[in-house]
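Exercise: predict the fold of this chain.
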Amino acid sequence: YNGRPASTVHHADGARASAVTAALPGIFTRGVVLDVPELRGVPALEPGYGVRPEEIEACERRQGVVIGTGDVVLLHTGANATVPPDPAGMPGFHWTCLPWLAEREVAAVGSDRINDVVPSGVAADGFPLPIHVVGLVYMGLWLLDSCDTTGLAATCRERGRWEFALSVSPLSLAGATGSPVN
């Protein structure tokens, strides 16, 4: 797990390494919203729709941004954050985005769902959530699940601006691997 045995992260007493406290005092960087429903001309992506690198690049061109080192990329799928996710099918990043995110040196990704497309297409190979498994474990990619991107995407559309200052402040929870954030 980021070069450490999994037992140091998944321990009965809490994470002894890679805890959320590693993100303290917080993250302050450039955020970029990818408005894929706007790109596709639909109100929301359908359950099970996987966003691939080609669509990320199409959003970059359409929105006039270039994603780079240290950015936090927020995927707006059009899912309403107040509606519970359907485990049978959710839109999200397709596993083929992982090399693209690594090459661009993205610091974190977020989505109005769990970041992974469900079904992943590689669940039979033991990776039901490859963005979580490969992103967290092998890339050290921070994940922001269940973000409320609806208002953010609407404001970005209204202003014609898709990049912004982003501040993420996790709680100081010793041994925890996650935290609610604003």
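Check your answer against the key: The radius of gyration is 16 Å.
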